[in-house]
Amino acid sequence: MPENYLNPKVYIKETANKGRGLFAKEKINKGETIENTTDIQILPKSELAKMPKIWRSLCYEINDHEEICPKDINNPPAGFLINHSCEPNVGSSLNFFETVAMRDIEPGEELMYDYAMTDSGNYEMKCECGTKSCRHFIRGSDWQRSELQEKYKGYFQKNIQDKIDKKNLEK
Ligand SMILES: [Zn+2]
User: Fold this and answer.
1) How far, in Å, is the centroid of ligand 1 from the Cα of 142?
2) pLDDT tens per residue, range 152-161
3) Cα-to-centroid distance, 138 and ligand 1 (Å)
């Protein structure tokens, strides 16, 4: 797969209230790769905490101490522009930098994932996704919710899946 692969059926568009987002141009089938980002840098969370807010809004967790950020913050690859929904249609593959379709996606739909699948840090954000399953607040501890573990099975990022596996072993 080429560097920074973006599925040709996907395009970037300005949304009404969430900045840029990814949308389907044509029907995307369940299991298709959406994007695969290699143009990244890994930064310690301690360093990120001192960066302007734009960094923290684009970067996502790789483990408890580090985050994945675009190599060029002013020109982030598409994978960094995917917005959150409590009823997502894309998720992670076990490859950290790859996003896949969790179900068939119709033309015009926005591609969205649930931050619970990638981020376990200490954060709380208001969610206004408006879906039936909206949690209203999304938190770094959401991956611990059993209903989400069931719903996103196979689509958590590896660091989160490792945490879930470890917790289950302790039971
Ligand atoms: Zn929501």
Assistant:
1) 12
2) 999 999 999 9
3) 7
